[in-house]
């Protein structure tokens, strides 16, 4: 670590391609020489919205966690990376410049915005690797909370479908599929023993970008809301659209997508499709593509547990259920899709932990 006894406040920052994630540790007992951070503590914990685009995910707050020899609360904050300029102005106006002058950061933005942090708030970034941070963060959060890891039971049945707690205390090996703007796939065999086995540029950023183009929506929340009310079978070409039913010889059911967006070459079909249908088809296309890459990686690496994380899964049960169903169906029940409650925040948590190592 960069400091044997890092001054409060403790932050971890993950500056990604789309979202900046900020984790803040609020100690239970503040010592006298930490009173300098009292203003920032009050500002962060008394509010849940910061400026125009900063949000604190209060439902994810972790009380009574232990880091080093300190107990306290972890707070989870996010804002669009495109708002970094405004974030730095706000931080400056709240007196963040007067605090300890090193902040630990990961993600591409830790490099891209390094100069701006020095210029705007007189802070040096201590940079950590994003995959080291991701794994450290997820192992810590999982170990601190019994209810972190879960899977979806009966993902295709709306009435029986449910989140079920999963005991992840014996984790290795597992595949970690991080769905952010793009996608990275890691095979993890131990806390320090992992490799990046694959990735794809067709990720959460692709979903949001295509959805904005196709439907005119402007936010991720709006895109998900549209998709929730849509039907992808008005857009995609299914096996039954081609065969008139199942393709029995190779066990392909009629309701399987044979060609994503495959109906949209027809002017007539295009004229009948809704924005909701287009959003749903975009979501299903991107999700199934990621699912199939994850499954091939798991097969190649001989791994059965596949953990999906990243903010693409935020407020997005449609994708989680699709992934859960696809992993189970295509692996004939040998692989399991798992999820974590703090899906997008592990890089930032890992960063905060490393400044205390
Ligand atoms: P990155 O580190 O690349 O920014 P994240 O894990 O933060 O990756 O995920 C970014 C993705 O999460 C976006 O591409 C989008 O699909 C999804 N997302 C979820 N919530 C939001 C939001 N409020 N604004 C923008 N994208 C969001």
From TrEMBL:
Signal peptide feature range: none
Cell compartment(s), UniProt: Cytoplasm
Gene Ontology cellular component annotations, sorted alphabetically: cytosol; nucleus
Xref: Pfam families: Fumble
GO molecular function: ATP binding; pantothenate kinase activity
Keywords: ATP-binding, Coenzyme A biosynthesis, Cytoplasm, Kinase, Nucleotide-binding, Transferase
E.C. designation(s): 2.7.1.33
SUPFAM superfamilies: Actin-like ATPase domain (SSF53067)
Reaction catalyzed: (R)-pantothenate + ATP = (R)-4'-phosphopantothenate + ADP + H(+)
Pathway: Cofactor biosynthesis; coenzyme A biosynthesis; CoA from (R)-pantothenate: step 1/5
Single GO biological process annotation from the record: coenzyme A biosynthetic process
Superkingdom of origin organism: Eukaryota
Family per similarity comment: Belongs to the type II pantothenate kinase family.
Protein name (Swiss-Prot/TrEMBL): pantothenate kinase
Organism: Popillia japonica (Japanese beetle)
